[in-house]
Amino acid sequence: MAMKDTYILGIESSCDETSVSIVKNGTEEIATIISSQIEIHKDYGGVVPEIASREHVKNVTIVLEECLEKADMIMNDIDAIAITYGPGLIGSLLVGLEAAKTLAFVYNKPLIPVHHIAGHIYANSLVKEMKFPLLAVVVSGGHTELIEMKDHYKFEKLGGTLDDAIGECYDKVSRVLDLEYPGGPKVDKLAHEGKITYKLPVPLKDDSYNFSFSGLKSAVINLVHNEEQRGKEINKADLAASFQDVAVTSIINKVRKAIIDRKIKYVIVAGGVAANKGLRAAMEELTNELNVELSIPPLKYCTDNATMIAAAGYFAYKDGRTADLTLNSKSQDTLK
Ligand code: KG4
Ligand code: ZN
Q1: Residue 152 gets which letter from DSSP?
Q2: CA end-to-end span of the chain, whole Å?
Q3: What pLDDT was estimated at residue 2?
Q4: What is the pLDDT of residues 68-97, one digit of tens each?
Q5: Which end of the chain is more exposed for a tag (fewer CB within 10 A), N or C?
Q6: Which domain holds residue 46?
Q7: Are residues 190 and 234 in the same domain?
Q8: Is 50 exposed, middle or buried (0-12, 13-18, 19+ CB in 10 A)?
Q9: Do 257 and 140 fall into the same domain?
Q10: Angle at the Cα of 82 (from 106 to 135), degrees rounded to 5?
Q11: Residue 162 burial (10 A CB sphere; 0-12, 13-18, 19+)
Q12: Within 6 Å (CB) of ligand 1, which residues are found?
C-alpha cells in the first residue's frame, strides 16, 4: 500500500522576505510565494527592522492566500505548519510566528518550529537526496557556519564566524565601493572583471573550523580611504577580485580541513552567498580533488524562501519536533 503523502505549509519571515510555501513529503515543491522588500530597503542601504516588520504584517495574509490558490489547496489539505522561529529580526519573526500559530489553532494542525539554518540546509532535499555524513557550508547575510550531519535532523556545529558573516562582509565592501544594496552579487560580478592585485590579510589561519571577516572588511575599508586621501584612484574591479579571492580562500581552507578530519562524503553549500560564482568554482575544484559529492541548490532555493522551511519542517515533523501554542520567536539560537 502506498504511504499517505504529507503536505507541510511553511512560513518564513525572519528578514525581509515574506514567504509561504507548500511542500509534499519534504522533497516536492507544490507552490511558493515570495514577497521581497528589497526595493523598499534599498534606499537605506540595508534592512530597516521596523519597516520590515510592518511590511510582513501587510503581506503575510496575502502571500498565504496566494500560495493556497496557486497550489489549488485549502487548509484542510495541509498536514502541519512549519514556521521559522529564529534566528532573525525579532519583529519580523514574530509576525510569521503569530500567523503560523493562528493557523495551527484555528485549523487544529501541528506546529513545527524550524531553525532558519536548518531551512537553508534542507533546501537541498528539494533537488537531491541527502547522504550522510554530510557537511553543510552555510554562507549568508547572517551566517557563516560549518555543520556536520550524521543523519536527518542530527546537527553538529563544527565552527562558525567569530564576528561578521561573509554576506555581511560582502555588503559592507560593496558599500565602500559605492555599489547598490544588496552588494554581494555586484561585488561578485565585478570580481570577475578584475585581477588580484591588492594584498589583503587571510583571516584566521588556525586549525579551528572558525571564520573571521571583520578584519578583512576593515582592511578593505582602510585601503579605500587611504588611497582616497592620497588622491589615488582605486581600481574597483581589482579590489573586488582581490577581496573575493581572500574571502573564498578562507572558506575553502576550513572546508578542506572539515572534509578530511570528519571523513565527509557529501557537501552542501547553502544560503544566499552560495550564489557566489567564485565560491561555487572553488567548491567544485575542492570536492573534485577530494572526491566527495557536491550539491549546490539552484539560486531560488538559496536565498530566503519558505520552500526550504516547509522541506525542513517535514523532516523535523518525522523527528517528532512539534511545538504547542506557547512557542516563541528567538532572535538567536544554536541549531540543534
Ligand atoms: O540567505 P540570504 O538570502 O539571507 C540571509 O539569511 O542572510 O543571503 C543574503 C546575503 C546578502 O548578504 C547578499 O549580499 C549575499 O547573500 N549574496 C552574495 C551573492 N548573492 C547574494 N554574496 C556574494 N556573492 C553573491 N553572488
Ligand atoms: Zn537566510
Answers
A1: T
A2: 34
A3: 65
A4: 999 999 999 999 999 999 999 999 999 999
A5: N
A6: 7-122+302-318
A7: yes
A8: exposed
A9: yes
A10: 170
A11: middle
A12: 15, 140-142, 167, 170-171, 182-185, 188, 271-273, 275-276, 303-304
The SS3 call for residue 17 is strand
Whether residues 144 and 279 fall in one domain? yes
Q: Is residue 279 part of a domain?
A: yes
Query: Ligand 1: which of 89, 121, 273, 332 to mutate, most ligand atoms within 8 Å of CB?
Result: 273
pTM of the predicted protein model: 0.93
Residue 69's φ and ψ, nearest 5 degrees, are -65, -45
Q: 257 and 143: one domain?
A: yes
| Distance (Å, whole) CA 26 – CA 310 | 7
C-alpha–C-alpha distance, residues 163 and 250, integer Å: 14
pLDDT in tens, 163-210: 999 999 999 999 999 998 778 999 999 999 999 999 999 898 899 999
Show the CA angle centred on residue 190, arms to residues 186 and 195, nearest 5°.
Answer: 155
Which of ligand 1's atoms lies nearest the C-alpha of 304? 3
